[in-house]
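**User:** You know discrete backbone vocabularies at least as well as I do. Would you mind producing a protein record, from residues through to fold? Write it directly below this note and I will take it from there.

**Assistant:**
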Amino acid sequence: MTTFHKAPAHVLLAVAVLTSALIASSAAFAAGEPQSEVAQPPSQQPNVVMIISDDQGWTDYGFMGHPHIQTPHLDRLAAQSLTFRRGYVPTSLCRPSLSTMATGLYPHQHGITGNDPAGRRPADRRRLIERAESLDTLPDILGRRGYLSMQSGKWWEGHYKQGGFTHGMTQGYGNVPDGRHGDRGLTIGRKGLKPVFDFMDHARAEERPFLLWYAPFMPHTPHTPPERLLEKYREKAPSVAVARYWAMCEWFDETCGDLLAYLDEHNLTENTLVVYVCDNGWIQHPDRPNRYAPRSKRSPYEMGVRTPIMVRWPGRVAPRDDSSRLASSIDLAPTILSACGVKPTDEMPGIDLTDDAAVSRRQEIFGETFAHDIADVEHPTRSLQYRWMIQGNWKLLVPDPRNVPNKPVELFNLAEDPHEKQNLAEDHAELVDQLRDRLNRWWRPGAE
């Protein structure tokens, strides 16, 4: 497994203990910010805002054509952005997907392949957090160049400082009783955005560039939207369960509107790079509230791995509605670092999405799906279920015979069959062989 490392975990924890205490409330700010290695004046460094949806189908936005769900704020963001309608995440489960966004690495590289260790043993949970802490993250890299950073919302990798953030909300496993995947951070959005606004006020007062990780627990379950929004969809949806999910999508959109309005009101929009992505997809089960239907979350199918990806930087990135070229969340770290004047690391396989030539040269994207529970934390890729790739309009799914036995290889033509109903593998055996060879050259389990 290929990784790159920062200081050992025990050293970082010791520094954290010496420089600050854990915050007592979500609005408190931690001390101990990294020393600046600014390569350019702070006024020329863009702020970065990452908006990360949680469990939302790629179709479930106004600008993506949903007939009922209204997302006016994200529609507006899409119109102002370089918007990739064919965006993807490599894996359709939140923890490994978020780790990819933070590190710019595939799950088989960063080693966080599932949400929980099998057996839920405390030692295994700590081992996973230590592994994540050993990786260089966007907050780490930008912090060395003078950036303040804040974590809000979903975060699995311990205390926010263990992820390199200077400020944050999540206390993490072992520090609070509910420290599995966000604890105090999960209130953001659902209970307002004051901690985020306070952080940006602080960064402005310090005249420091900032990175904001806004990953609210929305529209994730529990689907508990305001009654005013539920009533709006109750008669339009096929069931109350679906109406609740639709209302959650609009509620999340409202919080994005509040965040973007802050940037406008404080004259930050022009010098702020905003990126948007969802961690994984969702199909709401019509008869089971707060449950997803098959072929969505945790699957390699389109409703699991596809998401719109947006990049907005007024005056620097021209708005474009791109419905043909491929983008991946593996590209977010290189895109952000390049905008901030930092060279992406050699181990980051993604591209800068603002580099039009690089996007046009790309021929394929890749992904991998693992079990929810990591069977062996020391060998996390052993939980592999699928590898998949897209080349043009062709999508190949290759099941791992150890964990998904008796499942055939699948080939779909997404242009003609966007919902993957007809497996064409037998009709295009030669193409399957060509794509499988390319997939093996990307990553072949056991060949690391």
